[in-house]
Amino acid sequence: MEAEKLITVTGRGNIHIVPDVTRLEVELASLFKSYDTAYQMAEANLKDIGEVMTKCGLSKTLPKTVHFSIDKSFHSVYKNGHYTGEEEFDGYKLSQKVQINLGMDNVLLTKVVRGLGENLTDVEINIGYTVKDPRPHQLKMIERAVKDATEKAKIMAAAAGCSLGLVKTIDYSEHEIHIYSQARNITEPCEAAVCTEASLDITPEDLVGGEDVTVTWYLSNNVNK
């Protein structure tokens, strides 16, 4: 029995996307002697962030906690420059990450960043850009990936004296896409507190996204088919 004549090609669909969301990732980390104190600070941080939102005319529900942990922290013990194999307890490390999505409004961005710097301690603010709804962009990338695979397959088949037949399989792994680009990192609350509209006047570049799709066709030896 003659083996099937097949060709398998992976296509890549890339697109450039204009961002429509300014994303703030607010990271807070502190060390405390007790778990209860660390937890109380976590609640206070969220309350302070909520108050900043209110002062900026935004909803308190806008900030979303994307990471929260309180873990025991230790340090290694050394004597005469050599590690003793022992660990000493430092306390409880609080780690929080809160995400705030804003529109493309530099005035509002400045108010929020300054408010966070004025009201929070041990805070780091990452400013980046993304899109509100990535789904339409993902579908366009998939479409382009299939077209790219088809164009490549036609060229390779013709070079081998064949033509493409029917599609046998299309392989695509559904997954969540992350269309994001970081623009600035503010590492100290004092820096955030003195930010101005001019210092945060960032013109973001287009975001780049891409998807891969693998397609398998039957091949025909008759290039006229």
Q: Given this structure, which CATH class is correct?
A: Alpha Beta
Query: Given the helix and strand composition, which structural class is it?
Result: alpha+beta
Write the element-wise H/E pattern from the N-terminal end onward.
EEHEEHEHEEHE
Number of strands: 8
Helix segment count? Answer: 4
- Mean pLDDT across the residues is 93
CATH superfamily annotation: Protein of unknown function (DUF541), domain 2
The name CATH uses for the topology is Alpha-Beta Plaits
- In terms of per-residue confidence, which ranges show pLDDT below 50 for 5 or more consecutive residues? none
- How far do the termini sit from each other? 23 Å
Main sheet properties: 5 strands, antiparallel
What would the principal axes of the Cα set say about the shape? elongated
The side-by-side strand order for the widest beta sheet comes to 3-4-2-5-7
**Percent range for helical residues?**
25-40%
